[in-house]
Structure formats: structure tokens, C-alpha cells
């Protein structure tokens, strides 16, 4: 049961973040539940689901998430002077069977998840990133809910 949510509504600009404090009243026992956050951008609705754990004892997870990638296209056919003519695409898969995935992010930003994912999931999630052959640098990081990370 939701006990406290502050602020209830928040307006943020592009590239801004906001911290929303959420307090729940929970029942006894160990169980999982799901909370859905919603945001409007213009007339478009976005949703983010989060798994909430209620446990009688602390969760122990010292293992980093699993992270794998495969290229579906690359820049091997382009010489640098013609790099603007080509793009590369990578498929990323991440999974954390311990505490669950908190976040999968990339630098530069732009990692796309066509099926989205629920924060805290222990299932495999798949994302994609495409970049210009002129900009081949890319880093992806998977973070679980107990702050174990894999780069």
C-alpha cells in the first residue's frame, strides 16, 4: 500500500532527472510486487515497471550481471575517409539472476530496448545500439540492484 509519494507530480526538462521518494506499507513475509511509474512527454505516455522485494532477511548477491554482445554490422568495409557512409550495430544481452538488473546503459547514450524491461528483472534483456563508422567508441554497463556491475 502506498504510504507516501513526494512529489506526486514533477515537471522536468530534457536531460534532467528528478528524485521521487516513495514509501510503502508492506505485509509480513517474503514476496515480490511490481510498481509502474508513468510519464507523459507531450501526448505520448511512457511507463517503467519496477520489481519491489519484501524480505525477512537481506539479499546477498556478490556476482556481477552477465553481459554479452554481438555485431550485426560493422565498419570493416569502410576506410576512415569514407566513414560517414557506414554504420555499425551491436546487439546487447544482459541478465542478473541474483538481485536482478537495475540498469543497462551505454556511453554514448542511445542504447535501445525494443521490448523495454522491468527494473529488477532476473530475465535476460536485449538492447541495440547503432553508431556511425566515424564514431566507433562504445561502452555498455550492466548494474544490478546491489550495485554489482559489469562493463
Topology diagram in text:
Elements: E1 2-6, E2 21-24, E3 31-41, E4 44-54, E5 66-73, E6 87-95, E7 101-107, E8 125-132, E9 139-144, E10 149-150
Antiparallel strand pairs: 1-2, 3-4, 5-6, 6-8, 7-9, 9-10
Features:
2 domains; 0% helix; mainly beta; single chain; three-stranded antiparallel sheet
Proportion of strand residues: over 45%
**Total beta strands:** 10
Count the DSSP helices.
0
Number of domains: 2
Helix content: under 10%
Instruction: Return the average pLDDT rounded to an integer.
Output: 91
> How do the strands line up in the largest sheet?
5-6-8
Low-confidence stretches: none
How would you sum up the major sheet? 3 strands, antiparallel
Structural class: mainly beta
SSE pattern, N- to C-terminal:
EEEEEEEEEE
- The outline comes out as globular
Distance between the termini: 36 Å
If you compute it from the alpha carbons, what radius of gyration comes out, rounded to the nearest whole angstrom? 19 Å
